[in-house]
Amino acid sequence: MSRTVAIVEDEPAIRANYAEALRRHGYGVQPHASRAEAQAAFALKLPDLVIIDVGLGDEPEGGFDLCRELRARSATLPILFLTARDSDFDVISGLRLGADDYLSKDTSLPQLTARIHALFRRLDSLAAPQAREQVFRLRGLTLELERMRVTWDGRDVGLTVTEFWMVHAMVRYPGHVKTREQLMREAQVVVDDATITSHIKRIRRKFQALDAAFDEIDTVHGAGYRWRA
Description:
Structural class: alpha/beta
Mean pLDDT: 85
Strand content: 15-25%
CATH topology of the largest domain: Rossmann fold
CATH architecture of the largest domain: 3-Layer(aba) Sandwich
Number of helices: 8
CATH superfamily of the largest domain: Response regulator
CATH class of the largest domain: Alpha Beta
Shape: globular
Number of domains: 2
Distance between the termini: 45 Å
């Protein structure tokens, strides 16, 4: 049975473009032009994944409001923000509301579909019985590759898909410096240096929320980042 992806986007050309790309990948698509239209559809049945634009019509933060409502209804529904507003403030706002990931509108369609596949893969792996898989352990960290799950001292770290792949890139080769370009490649995102920096800050904060003494990620000025060996 094909999975259903809802697209909440007020620009008709962009909405049609995404819908066509996702149908080619075998997804059922529910396009919605406004928050009200999406709310009416979601009241009947939630889709399997939602892509939301932040600004919807005359509601500059309508997407944030919709995300908040959806997260209150389902803790596990994958939510992806896709927007022209990729400032650090907007990214952090979206992720604080419980979105799983955040991509800017200049993201290519192959990158978008790769991210959707990754979100579904994580959902499937968390629901499946635990199989033999690649697990990285380093001090308090455990990273389960197939389940896309990271724990610190046995407690879950709520990373987005982008953040998971950045941590994986560093943990796989502890002590080796990963440049911003390498982190982008691993996470399948194309963003500016400032956004990579803000991702790293958020990753640190999420670990520090569980352990105030967390200090595993080194910034190597002018070079990149590394997980301590």
